Amino acid sequence: MIATITLNSSIDQNIIVSGLVKDDTNRALDVIRYPGGKGVNVSKVVRELGGPTFAYSLTGGLMGKIWKQGLERLDIPFYAMPVEGETRMNIVLTDRRDNTQTRISSPGPHVGGAAIRKFVKHLLSVRPRPFLWALGGSLSLGMRPSLYAEIIHKLQKEGARCILDTDNEALRLGVEAKPFMIKPNEYEIERLVGKRLRSLRDFEAAGRSLIKKGISIVVVSLGSKGALFVTHDETFRVTTPRVKVRSKVGAGDSLIGGFALGLYQKKSIKDSARLGVAASTSAVMREAPRLCLKKDIPPLLKLIHIRKHI
Ligand SMILES: Nc1ncnc2c1ncn2[C@@H]1O[C@H](COP(=O)(O)OP(=O)(O)OP(=O)(O)O)[C@@H](O)[C@H]1O
Ligand SMILES: [Mg+2]
């Protein structure tokens, strides 16, 4: 089982226009609503690729109901702890004319200490224990930045392996809990190590410094340049082919989903890495809300290579 944790779930409302004009009335070509959040996206990918997954989150209000209906429709089993207030709605403005996606993220409801404690207690009681936990995204109001670190510390104390994908203070503190894996993109790792990183060698050195802190795998996702994998024993880059980009939403989450599923299926780190990059490449080729598509994977795997010399 690959369990996912989304602390600030959302409904993403994707409004599709052609040629957005500011300060004027625009007619939408289409409006699509779907459950969002990094953890949920990982669950979607694992589900699409035929693996077992379970999504844990906190939801509230009418948007919370829509979130739960969305997961039911996707056939993803979930636990949504009820909280007061309203699950947030994020806006994704897709402009077909210039192929851009503008996101407006909302802060999310205020979640009190008692609800957070109850949620964490529930996570610790999950049996059988999941093979891996993927945690990611922003925090709701009322959640301290150390919350990911606290959850990872508690889950890993019981023998679980955690993958963390977040940013800024939550990531900095999360690293202190020595998660099994982190997957920053180029900008997130720069903020994490507090340095401008220019070359692949710089990214490798930054990854290596994080491995020294006790993380087992650091994956730096590099957009169209693929991803750099740094482990205790080795560094390698996984290339990705040139493809037509339709939606970059959830590319990083798809990499995590594919990689986690590979490990679950007892594939080697390198084969799992190729599966992760294939899933993320498929996700950018497909228009939102679709992330990866299972049938894209075999042809993409033929075009995705491991480079030992970075
Ligand atoms: N233009 C592209 N062409 C091919 N593959 C891509 C492209 N952009 C992203 N990918 C794939 O998706 C992976 C993750 O992308 P990226 O580094 O942009 O993640 P991210 O910034 O974390 O994304 P997210 O918006 O999901 O947080 C890359 O490692 C790569 O495999
Ligand atoms: Mg990301």
Helix content: 25-40%
What is the structural class? Answer: alpha/beta
How many distinct helices?
A: 10
Ligand kinds: adenosine-5'-triphosphate, magnesium ion
* CATH superfamily label: Ribokinase
Largest sheet: 10 strands, mixed
Explain this structure to me?
The chain has one domain (2-307): UDP-N-acetylmuramoyl-L-alanine:D-glutamate ligase (3-Layer(aba) Sandwich). The strands form two sheets. It has a ten-stranded mixed sheet with strand order 5-4-1-8-9-10-11-12-13-14, with helices on both faces. It has 310 residues and is α/β, with parallel strands linked by helices. The radius of gyration is 19 Å and the shape is globular. The protein starts with a strand and ends with a strand. It has ten helices and 14 strands. Adenosine-5'-triphosphate (ATP) binds at residues 185, 221-224, 226-227, 240, 243, 245, 248, 250-253, 255, 277, 280-281, 284.
Features:
alpha/beta; ten-stranded mixed β-sheet; binds adenosine-5'-triphosphate; binds magnesium ion; 23% strand; 10 helices; UDP-N-acetylmuramoyl-L-alanine:D-glutamate ligase
